[in-house]
């Protein structure tokens, strides 16, 4: 069988199975998790990391050789099957822009509130 | 935002303080980020920052006083997402070790390339999210079929349903080898048991690029060596190169 020597990963897994199992357990209301499924998830995770890294690296123009956060955000944006990560990797914005957005939202809310108040008044009057 | 004092972002994720002092941060615009509800999302005290209420130019240049980022940034802090009905995990349990993650990443890109720190952390989070995603889909199916245990088929089905069907073929092959190796174990292998009982296979920072699993059957004669490249091109059909042909000579005595 796979010998677990000091240096070679057994069964070719380089991720800690116990931790993977922990994460799986906390993900859903499940009673039992088969050993096979932990193994498969481990391998799938490896594939996933490789996939992400490769795709993200392609985002870089030929000049830079660093895989950066923004590259990952691009990848997630573009791929359909990675939409579940949209919340995990939101695109970064500058605070200035963010504050502007917030202010806009609040103004809109104010406007909407005032409008509905006005409508109420009109209703009661009539 | 709160007037004057500390502005706290709710449910933000990653953020970096640029060397130039520009504050760029990833934000969720879910609802109004009042931040007054006590939870700081991912931002622990180390990461809280002060925003000048007079907005625009001035505050954009504030930099975050960020705390130590020694072990990859995901140190203490509250849990990110509270799964309904399940205890939130401690920070360190929610993610896979960053060393393992970044090693797999490094093996996927050209050797001289670098990976930004926040990119590593980001992938770390994505991975946990991925695991949760797959698992909950598989678990749903399990429930539907009134089964209590998630098995390999459920995982494969979930992968396919969620748009990762390019993974399915390679995973089937892995699963096949895994089953074969497990069967071998049950036949009473005298090599160290790495199967049933042992779940925590320690991460291994010094190993070489390829995985090698050596299998010696009970009669001591059959050796199956799998050597496959660390990188599997997911976009294409599986690239699993096996070092040798599989040979079974009587697994059972």
TrEMBL record, chain A:
It comes from the Eukaryota. It is found in: Nucleus. The lineage of its organism: Eukaryota, Metazoa, Chordata, Cephalochordata, Leptocardii. It comes from Branchiostoma belcheri. GO terms for biological process: chromatin remodeling; DNA-templated DNA replication. Forms a complex with DNA polymerase epsilon subunit POLE3 and binds naked DNA, which is then incorporated into chromatin, aided by the nucleosome remodeling activity of ISWI/SNF2H and ACF1. Does not enhance nucleosome sliding activity of the ACF-5 ISWI chromatin remodeling complex. The keyword Secreted does not apply. Heterodimer with POLE3; binds to DNA. Component of the CHRAC ISWI chromatin remodeling complex at least composed of SMARCA5/SNF2H, BAZ1A/ACF1, CHRAC1 and POLE3; the complex preferentially binds DNA through the CHRAC1-POLE3 heterodimer and possesses ATP-dependent nucleosome-remodeling activity. Within the complex, the heterodimer with POLE3 interacts with SMARCA5/SNF2H; the interaction is direct and enhances nucleosome sliding activity by the SMARCA5/SNF2H and BAZ1A/ACF1 interaction. Within the complex, the heterodimer with POLE3 interacts with BAZ1A/ACF1; the interactions are direct. Coiled coil: none annotated. GO terms for molecular function: DNA binding; nucleotidyltransferase activity; protein heterodimerization activity. This is Chromatin accessibility complex protein 1. The gene is LOC109473124. PANTHER family: CHROMATIN ACCESSIBILITY COMPLEX PROTEIN 1, HISTONE-LIKE TRANSCRIPTION FACTOR CCAAT-RELATED. Residues 105-126 are annotated as: Disordered. Residues 15-58 form the Transcription factor CBF/NF-Y/archaeal histone domain. Keywords: Acetylation, Coiled coil, DNA-binding, Nucleotidyltransferase, Nucleus, Phosphoprotein, Transferase. One of its GO terms (cellular component) is CHRAC.
From TrEMBL, chain B:
CDD domains: HFD_NFYB. Keywords: Activator, DNA-binding, Nucleus, Transcription, Transcription regulation. One of its GO terms (molecular function) is protein heterodimerization activity. Pfam families: CBFD_NFYB_HMF (PF00808). Residues 95-159 form the Transcription factor CBF/NF-Y/archaeal histone domain. Residues 1-44, 60-80, 184-203 are annotated as: Disordered. It comes from the Eukaryota. Residues 71-80 have a biased composition (Basic and acidic residues). The keyword Nucleus applies. It is found in: Nucleus. GO terms for cellular component: CCAAT-binding factor complex; nucleoplasm. Belongs to the NFYB/HAP3 subunit family. Component of the sequence-specific heterotrimeric transcription factor (NF-Y) which specifically recognizes a 5'-CCAAT-3' box motif found in the promoters of its target genes. NF-Y can function as both an activator and a repressor, depending on its interacting cofactors. This is Nuclear transcription factor Y subunit beta. It comes from Branchiostoma belcheri (Amphioxus). The gene is LOC109471050.
